Structures are given as C-alpha cells and as structure tokens.
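Chapter summary example: a protein plus NAI.
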Amino acid sequence: MSAPGSLPPIAIIGTGSMGGAILAGLRAGAPDVRVRVTTRSEASAAALRADGVEARAVEHDSDANAWAVSGAGVVVLGVKPAQIVAVLGELAPTLDPAALVVSVAAGITTAAMEAAAPNPVVRAMPNTPSLVGRGVTGVSGGARSTATHLALADDLFRLVGTVVELPESQIDALSTISGSGPAYVFLLIEEFTRAAQAMGFDENVARLLAEQTFIGATALLEASGEDPEELRRRVTSPKGTTEQAVGVLQGAKLSALFTRAAEAALARARELAAGA
Ligand SMILES: NC(=O)C1=CN([C@@H]2O[C@H](COP(=O)(O)OP(=O)(O)OC[C@H]3O[C@@H](n4cnc5c(N)ncnc54)[C@H](O)[C@@H]3O)[C@@H](O)[C@H]2O)C=CC1
Ligand SMILES: O=C(O)[C@@H]1CCC=N1
C-alpha cells in the first residue's frame, strides 16, 4: 500500500459537508499533495480560497470543474447523488482516462458511473466524523478498478479515519449504519438533552450533562476495549435506578426501531440508485 505522501494530485468536485471533510483530512494528513476543489456557489469557493485552498465555483466559471480535474490522478465526486452521472459525463472529455474517480454518493453504482466515463471507479461511503479524523469509510472497486486503485482510495480515506473494503453489494447497507449513523447519535443526544430539561435543568446544563455523558461513555468504550453490554451491566446496579430506565427503553422496542431506521435508509439508497 502506498504512503499518503505518494498520493497524486487530487480534485474534489463538490466541496460541501462530505467533500469538505475529505479536504480537511487531506490538508492535515498530506499537506504537500496538490488539491483543487470546486463548489457550486462563488461564496463557498471564496471562503475556501480565503482559507488557502485552490477553489473555483461553477456558477462563476463554467470551466471550474475542468480546471480542477486537469492533471489530477484522483477525482473525488462530492456532489449530490442525482448529479453524479451528469457531472462525470461533463468531465469525461477533459479527464485523464487513467485517473481514478471516487464517488461518495449514496446509492449510485459503479456501473452507472462506468457508463458515463472510461475511468476506473471506486465507490466510497464515508461519514462526517471524517472532519476530525475519526471517520469510517466503506470502499468498493468497480469493474475497471484494480488492487492499486483500491489501495489509492484506502490511502485517501485513511487520512480521515478507518477504512473497510467490502463488496459493492454491501455499500448501501454500510451507508445505513456508519454513513447515516452520526445522525442517529446526534438525535439521541438531542433527545437526552430534552429529557434533562424535563428534569428541570436549564438548557446549558442539560446540554453539558447529555453531551459529556455520550462523549465520556464512548471514550470509556474505546479505552477499555470491553463490550458495550458489559459496560452497561456495570452501570446497571441490581434493583437500582438504571435498571428502571433501561427497562423502559427496551420495553419501547428500541432494538426493532433501530432495525426499522436502517431498513428505511436502505430503501432510500435503492431509490437513489434508481434515480428517484
Ligand atoms: N453528509 C454526509 O454525511 C454524507 C454524504 N455523502 C454523500 O456526499 C455527497 C454530498 O453530500 P453533502 O456533502 O452532504 O452535500 P452538500 O450539499 O453539503 O455538498 C454538495 C456540494 O456540491 C457542490 N456542487 C453542486 N453542484 C456542483 C457542480 N456542478 N460542480 C461542483 N460542485 C457542485 C455544492 O456547492 C456543495 O458544495 C452526496 O452524494 C451524499 O450522498 C456520503 C456520506 C456521508
Ligand atoms: O443522507 C444521505 O443521503 C447521506 C448518505 C449517508 C449520510 N448522508
């Protein structure tokens, strides 16, 4: 596997939440690699330029995407799923046919992208904790992608966290867990904060209690190497208070609710693949 320092010039087409997180990882982990990025709006591109990034906006310069991919060995597509095939088709005439195209779009298959350009394609599904170097990214190669292409994608996403290689048939399923998962966690924290306010704490104290409890519990999970079930047992004194709280959550069929949430995300990924 090549070292991050050997990454070729990189273009990021669509530098929003996800493209921006990858950009942050690249700047921190491989500062010598040439990175050119694009956005739709000139205001976003100007903000990136003010931060020292080579950025152009398509609304201001219709050749911005062609400029970004010129000389690039890896092109990351960070636009919305519905735009992926059209944007790749527009880029195809200017793109080096040997350049690796990496899409992070939910639902869009490597086959759909391979029909739009002659390039090797890797499909990736990162998540937003990539912004702080703690992402999880699933990667899967298309029909033209070799072990070298996958290693290149691994190198790129290892700059922003952990990488899992898997068959493309599992990428949508991974997306329902690690891709969407940060939203599940933030929603739980929001609800936990509301429960604290209902107990009479003002908003600031409620937030502090809820957020630091989540952060502390996950830090304990990571540092101890114990199963979450065992760590939960240690909080739950027999006939104590936690037992009552956990009983209420389990009685509300929390487990089935998580499965239904993941199934709903999977169904949407399949709709996106079908162009809906
Ligand atoms: N937000 C997330 O947690 C994750 C998102 N993704 C995928 O990342 C992709 C982007 O999602 P977000 O970052 O959330 O959306 P976003 O709306 O924050 O970013 C999209 C970016 O694309 C730019 N853009 C739009 N049209 C463009 C064009 N023609 N040329 C160049 N740039 C253009 C926009 O200016 C914006 O910067 C989606 O395909 C999504 O499925 C994947 C994993 C996680
Ligand atoms: O919500 C979405 O469609 C994207 C893919 C996974 C996380 N965000």
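Key point: The first strand starts at residue 10 and ends at 13.
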